[in-house]
């Protein structure tokens, strides 16, 4: 392992770089705000310049020069190929099958990749009222595939979701077909510890990769169910100087915006 | 023809206690000035409708205007929670708040259905989620009469009052909106009564790329409210005040600091936020 760069890399930076790498060039990507937007723009500015970023505010092909704080900043409209009304972005473009990749975060995930962004605790008397569904349920159902970014802990990787806001693989293999969901579902889950992918048969999330300095044991300890681990867990390539400097430049534009 | 009215008269005439009211604007053109006027006029028991409640509904909920919230995403974009919304849901402060919760795609379909004079909108959505169990009288499975596929029906939204902000209107009340247009058109056409606040009234509407125009006869009232979308933004007029969105996290976290802010910046000011 090289040490100099990676010592300086924060867990969020590692997660964002790995998420950016998961996005291949010339894909049409529906982007949520926060880490997904940072990662998608990092991909666009490094290895995937022809990636098309679509925001739920109706901006298609946005090429923001500074990172937006919201999904509807003026920068996204000014740099877009097209701006369409909100009912259209969901009906014609997402439901119409024109989105290759959806990028989602959540507060909780379960072993079949289902997501909660609604409440922690009981729905009627929540401990924490989270923002709610937004565009996530339909992105999870209809994007060609879904990339999930989420920090890993026993609070976020749970045996049982407090609320199922968005469907990953449902409660059993075959559920996506039964529910007539056109997209493949979550094909990769990126955390601050490593990467998980669904088992080809059971669809259970399986640890396939850990970031430098993270052990499989730590990933197990920070998972709220007995974690399935791949036979050959790989170690994530540390961020290159190019990736890291571009990411830090981008994040500085967000802070300058505040 | 739309009536051109001062903002306070327009709100007094159009918004009544107990109404269902939608103040829309998807990140862009959020009608803050109109929302503050509703707070100043002490409207109560409103069913507030909005895809992304944002700071404006956090303020109206904290100020005690709402009995119900119909929404799809209730956060402070890029910052975190809406603390007044959370306090109402988690601790019934300043009173209990009933929630009717949907997804963005569902809310957009509900507005479009309302504007189209249909009883429901149709989409492929909600299946497999627990949203289905929590909005029972507004979501239902429906069989396609042509293909037999099972689809999702969402009840149309027909608010008593729809309020949006726009860049400008002419003196006849024709409204022009450009940039991110969100659901501005749908909500004006779906609502029984409507109010459009504008940055400026002009003699002639100069064409703008990608602009939509709401003809005066489709609009209830127009009120001039310069800077009326701040701290959100008005494309070609001013940028989003991201710093205020950040500061709101601190202001709204605590009931006392929230009430001080409302007293100073809304209740005591005469129509300018």
Biggest β-sheet strands, sense, barrel of chain B: 10 strands, mixed
Task: Summarize the amount of helix of chain A as a percent range.
Answer: 25-40%
How do the helices and strands follow one another from N- to C-terminus of chain B? Answer: EHEHEHEEEHEHEEEEEHEEEHH
End-to-end distance of chain B: 28 Å
Query: Would you identify the CATH H-level superfamily of chain A?
Result: Glutaconate Coenzyme A-transferase
| Arithmetic mean of pLDDT of chain A | 94
Structural class of chain B: alpha/beta
Q: Which descriptor suits the 3D outline of chain B?
A: globular
* Biggest sheet overview of chain A: 10 strands, mixed
Helical proportion of chain B, percent range: 25-40%
Question: How would you characterize this protein structure?
Answer:
The complex is a heterodimer of chains A (258) and B (273). In chain A, helix 3 (35-45) packs across helix 9. Chain A has one domain: Glutaconate Coenzyme A-transferase, CATH 3.40.1080. In chain A, strand 12 (194-198) and strand 13 form a beta hairpin. Chain A has helices spanning 4-7, 11-21, 35-45, 74-78, 86-94, 136-142, 175-178, 216-221, 241-257; strands spanning 28-31, 52-55, 59-60, 82-83, 101-104, 108-109, 115-116, 119-121, 126-129, 145-149, 186-190, 194-198, 205-210, 228-235. The termini of chain A are far apart. Chain A is globular. Chain A has 258 residues and is of the alpha/beta class. Chain B has 273 residues and is of the alpha/beta class. Chain B has 2 domains: 3-102 and 158-267, Glutaconate Coenzyme A-transferase, CATH 3.40.1080.10; 104-155, no CATH class. In chain B, the strands form 3 sheets. In chain B, strands 1, 2, 3, 4, 7, 11, 12, 13, 14 and 15 form a 10-stranded mixed β-sheet that branches. In chain B, helix 1 (7-14) crosses helix 2 and helix 2 runs parallel beside helix 3. Chain B is globular. Chain B starts with a strand and ends in a 6-residue tail after the last helix. The model of chain B has no long low-confidence stretch (mean pLDDT 96). At the A-B interface, helix 4, helix 5, strand 9 and helix 6 of A face helix 4, helix 5 and helix 7 of B.
